[in-house]
Amino acid sequence: MIAVAAGVKVLVATKPVDFRKGADGLVALVREALGHDPFSETIFIFRSKRADRLKILAWDGSGLVLFWKRLEHGAFRWPPVSDGVMRLTAPQLAALVDGMDWSRLQARDVARPTATS
After folding, report:
1. CA dist., res. 113 & res. 117, Å (int)
2. Which of 45, 67, 87, 112 could form a disulfide with 12 if both were Cys (CB 3.0 to 4.6 A apart)?
3. How far from chain centre, in Å, is Cα 53?
């Protein structure tokens, strides 16, 4: 599981990328194709064409972190292929990395208390 600090955005590049790219190649992709700063408080997720692999790129304040995962069976649940990015929540990221269907996660509605007891 990956812990996401408060204030950190999670962005998924919805179009598959060449998985031969390392950290430097993904940094260039974030800047040029996605139009984002790879050294910001943002986690970038990339998918392979086969949909069974993902790479996560993040800046932790002292260096780049590159996380790679391949599912042994099945495929990750990805948003439809298109140009651009899609935002995920921290729980959705955790579900995606675990190979679960992140799109079914919904935040619970919590009623605001009107008085203290």
Report:
1. 10
2. 45
3. 12
Domain tally for the chain? 1
Tell me, yes or no, whether 117 lies in a domain: no
pLDDT tens-digit readout, 28-42: 999 999 999 999 999
In a domain, 96, yes or no: yes
- Please state, in angstroms and rounded to a whole number, the distance separating the CA atoms of residues 60 and 57: 10
Task: Convert the pLDDT of each residue in 35-79 to its tens digit.
Answer: 999 999 999 999 999 999 999 999 999 999 999 999 999 999 887
Q: Is residue 83 part of a domain?
A: yes
Q: Is 19 part of any domain?
A: yes
Question: With bands split at pLDDT 50, 70 and 90, how would you rate the model's confidence at 82?
Answer: confident
Enumerate residues 6+ apart whose C-beta is below 8 A from 113: none
Q: For residue 45, give Cα distances in angstroms to 4, 6, 26, 109.
A: 13, 18, 10, 28
The reported pLDDT for the residue numbered 117 is: 61
